[in-house]
Structures are given as C-alpha cells and as structure tokens.
Design goal:
The complex is a heterodimer. Chain A has one domain: Rossmann fold, CATH 3.40.50. The two termini of chain A are 12 Å apart. Chain A contains 10 helices and 8 strands. Chain A has an 8-stranded mixed β-sheet, sandwiched between helices. By secondary structure, chain B is of the alpha/beta class. A 6-stranded mixed β-sheet of chain B has the order 2-3-1-4-5-6, covered by helices on one side. Chain B starts with a strand and ends in an 11-residue tail after the last strand. The relative contact order of chain B is 0.14. Chains A and B meet through helix 1 and helix 8 of A and helix 8 and helix 9 of B. Bound molecules: thiamine diphosphate (TPP) and iron/sulfur cluster.
Chain lengths: 312, 305
Amino acid sequence: MWQRETFKKIKQIPREEHVMPGTALCAGCGGLEALRLAAKVLGDHVVYVNAAGCFTMLAAYPYSSFKGSWLYTTMGSAPAGAQGIRDALDVLIAKRRLPKSEDLKVIVLGGDGSTYDMALSATSGAMNRQLDFYYICYDNEAYGNTGMQLSPATPYAARTATSPCSLQHPAATMQEKKDIFEIWRAHRPPYIATVAPRYPLDLEEKFARAATFTGPKMFLALAACPTGWLYDPGATPEVAKLAVETGLWPLKEAVNGVVTHTYIPKRKPVEAYLRLQGRFRHLFEPTVQTDAIRHIQERVDAYWQQAAQEQA
Amino acid sequence: MVAVRFHGRGGQGAKTASRILGTAAFLSGYVAQDSPIYGAERRGAPVAAFTRFSREPIRERGAITYPDVIVVADASLLDDATARVVDGMDDQTVLFVNSSLSTDALRAHLSLPEQMTVRDVTGIALQQLGQREAISALLGAVAARLVGLEWESVRLAITRELQDLAVTAPVIEKNLTVAKQCYDSSGPASLHKGRSQAISVAALHRPIYEPPTKGTARISAAGNSVLRETGGWRTFRPVLFADKCNGCWLCFAYCPDGVIAMNQEDRPVVDYAHCKGCQICVHECPTHALVAEREAEGGVAWTAK
Ligand SMILES: Cc1ncc(C[n+]2csc(CCOP(=O)(O)OP(=O)(O)O)c2C)c(N)n1
Ligand code: SF4
C-alpha cells in the first residue's frame, strides 16, 4: 500500500502563497488550483518555462503572479527552453559567476495541447537527455486559451469547438485520449505522477517525493475547467473528485518506470462524472446514448482490471 | 450598416448575445458579422463582442470603434478604464445597461448619452431562470429589439445559439419565455445610421531593432499581479458565519486563487479585493459556514483602479 510520508494532515499544507492573486485565469480554474498547491512545495527559487496557453495569462505584461522567475516560449519549445536555462545555470555555477545558493529549479508549464501534441518531440528529447527539470502539464483536455478546440487529450465523446455533435457523430469525438503517461514512462524518467486538485495531500506528497530525484520529474495534473467543460465554477472540486472516484483519472506514480496507484477508487459509474458537464450533455439529452456511455465505462473497467493484474 | 458593441464579463453571455443578434439579423435577410475580441477573455474578465449588419456587403472588420448601440452586461465595467466601454460613445449612441441601479445613479459620476435604458436583467434571470449568468438570451433579445429586428428571427437565433452551447430544450424554452418579455418591454431606438466612421489608416512604421534586454516585455517585479484587483468579477461573495466554522482548512486548500488565509483561530479570512466569486469555498464548506451573498452594486468593498 502506498502511503504519504510527509503530508499526512490538511493543516500541513504550507500557508504561504507563491502564485499571487490578480490573475486573468477563469474563476474556479482547476489547473490554477493544482499549480498553486504544487508551488507551495516548489517554492520561489524557480523559473517557470511556460508554453503558450491559458497559463501564460499568469504573467501578462506588466503583471506577474510569480514570486519566482518566468519565461514565455512557443507551444512546441518549452522543454528546449528549459534545457537552455538549465545549461546556462550549470555553466554559470561551474564558472563561479553564480553562487550555488542562487541555483533555480527549472519547471516547464504546459497545457495538454502543447504537451500531448506540439511539444511532444521536445519533451521526448529532454527526457532522453535526462534533463534535470520538472514538467507540469495542466490537462484541461482541449486547446483552452483559443476557445476549446479538440486536442489529443480530449476524451471520447467530449464535445469541443472543433468536435461538435453531428448526424455522423452524434456522440461528438470518437478519438480516445492519448496515453501520455505511458509515452512518458517509455522514456524511463525517474519520476512521473498524476495529480488532481481535489486531492491536495496526494499532490503535495508527490511534489515532495519528486524533489528527491535528479532528472526529469513529470507531472500530469487534472485541470477541471469550468469554461471548457461547461459546468458552474463552484463545482470544480466536485468534478475533479468524480474524475478520480469513477476511475477515469487514476492517481498514480511511476518511480523509475514502476507504477503504483496512490489511491484505489471504489469506482462510481462514469455517468456520475459525465452528467455534471455540459460537454457530455448530448450523451443524456435529448436521448440517452447508451452505447457511448457503455463504451466509456468498459474502457475504465478494462484499465483497472489490467492495473489489478499488474499489481498481482 | 448598424454596429452594436457588447461589453460584459467572461461567462456572462456578452459574446453569445452578440452571436444571437448576428444570427437574428442574418435570419432576417441581412448580411451579418459577429465576433468577440480575442485576448485574455476569461470568466469574469472584461470582454467585448461586436455585431454588424447591413443590406449591403460589409467591408469593415474587427473591433467597432464608433458603435450605434452599446450593450453593457455589467455596470461595474463603466468604472473600469481597461474595459473601454465609453470608447467612441457620443450623444447619438444608444446605450443599454444591465444594472439594478437607477439611470440617475449611473449618470451621477459619468456623462452618458440621452438614449439610455437601464434594466436589472441579472435580477430577472435570477428570479425567473434561477441562474445568475443566464442573461445572454435576454441581452440578445433586448439588443435585437433596440435595432428593430422581428421576434421570430430572434426566437430562432436564441434557440440555435443556446443549442450550440449544449443548453437543454426545457431550459431554452424558459429562456425564450423570459427573453420575449424583455423583448416586448423594450422599444426600438432611433438609430443615427451611417455614423460609423472610417478608421484612419496608421502610417507604416519600420520597426527598429532593440536588444532583448530593451526590446522585449520584461516584468521585473515579483508577484505584482496583486495590483490588479479581480474582486469586481464577483456576482456573489462568500460570507463567513464564524460560529458555524469548524476550522477544517478546506476552503483554504481548495481556493484556486489563494485568496483565503487562515487566521490564528483557524478561521478563514477572505481577500475580497481579489476573490473572483467562484463559490468553490461555499460548495465545499462541510458545515455551510460560508454562504453566497449577491453583491450589492455600487456598495461593494471593491473599486476599480
Ligand atoms: C504554434 C502555435 N500555434 C497556435 C498558437 C495559438 N495558441 C495560443 S494558446 C493555444 C492553446 C494552447 O492549448 P493548450 O496547450 O491545451 O493549453 P491551454 O490553452 O488549454 O491552457 C493556441 C492554439 C500558438 N501560440 N502557437
Ligand atoms: S479556460 Fe479552463 S484551464 Fe483555461 S484558465 Fe479558464 S478554467 Fe483554467
């Protein structure tokens, strides 16, 4: 059984804030919640390398929400930017032009469009070179900043701006969500974890554990998104909770490639999660699309069956 | 050509209202355009959307600088210089403001045009639709009435646009009923057509090369986003009933913006200057010690900078 060692009680969440308010991100943004919690462990001796996306709104001239540093990159090049900064810091420290105490953690921040799609090759390269960095993908399952277009992270049957319901496709998109966790794992980075904002202690613990590894530390954060998933902003924790409790968003980590599920949900029917969100409403109204719902359920069941087998 | 500019906060429906108007005009046989501004259009942040329609092909594109009609979905935007609501407004502009305040109260500190209507559309939406942010159909209907479009096209346009947003049939029906009331109780405005002025073409500038230290947008301050107060985004504010609070820290843990701090007695203190009013704390408080209260317009702790 996986156990938290550092973060056992909610009152251990550090009080200090590192991502300051006044941001232009949506009220109720689940991705921001994940970042805020992560930053409580990461601290201020950091440089965020941010691929274009919603989070670039966090530092929109002339304001920055970060107490640490931040660099803006194109959607495809954040891990390459991270390599450049890491190398520069290493060289400066080696030449004694920068004291070791001023070293920074290099952290890529990317949306799913950037992570699953445009920056995949740059990420692959960085992992292959064992770059010492963090990667945080906040996964809102679409290209959010430009108005919610389909990305490879969009799950089966989700309606987006570019995957509407049509006569040919009454259940909206038929693509399956790309399994980025496994793509990352094939590179054998020392640490990979999935997190969700509604599970703050699980999240904090994973960032604390990641700090003990040198090399790529990869995070996939569920970014429940009221604007794109079409639900009331106040329901963000509820949506994140149901994503985990239905088994659709497994909380897990991979240490040197060995996978452990950090939480085993009792697995509510997926319907409970789907029903909450406007992007799945067509599955229930005007008629219930039983086949599509069953398909989603079967995929989750198959995932957990395989996980149980591997565990045994 | 008729040019209508909508101002609202992201999520309030200004963009959809603009689409409803565009679609309604199109269905009435006009050439129509509608587009929102592209930028940091987030829930709660100031947004603008533009609708043009005409019997002739429309050559103009982009933002509307001199609108015939301005529809304001949130009166607090009038005080927010960055929202640029009054841009290109003059005495001939027709203005509609969604507010529970009176026309005089709004005029008290701003000079606003003669043809100005104020109506508490949010109040109507709360009362009749039970939802604070369901005002796009109502605003679309009011705007369509102001510019003299027929109800039948408005009805079709609302149905189409709300369907596109995955709104269910019974909710669309309700929206139509309330929208019709708003439509019927407004009158057509007298528009001064053809007053939209051509935008002067700026002289071409040849960019000068500057090194990145000078030529890029650098922010040298740390965490200075606190200077931007986002408290004005709220429709509802979380209010604490301290005797019910058990000091569990959940509101603090789940607040995305980090605007809840726990004091020495383990009670939450909300930073109202920045709280965006997402209501997560209200939803998640296990003892219901945090309660949502509608912001009183004009009487809030927040003022725009
Ligand atoms: C190469 C390239 N194509 C398109 C864009 C326009 N663009 C800016 S942000 C964005 C969406 C990014 O989506 P995602 O990575 O999922 O992050 P999110 O916006 O959801 O946070 C797009 C398409 C861009 N900046 N660069
Ligand atoms: S669109 Fe979604 S992910 Fe982007 S800022 Fe808004 S809530 Fe967050």
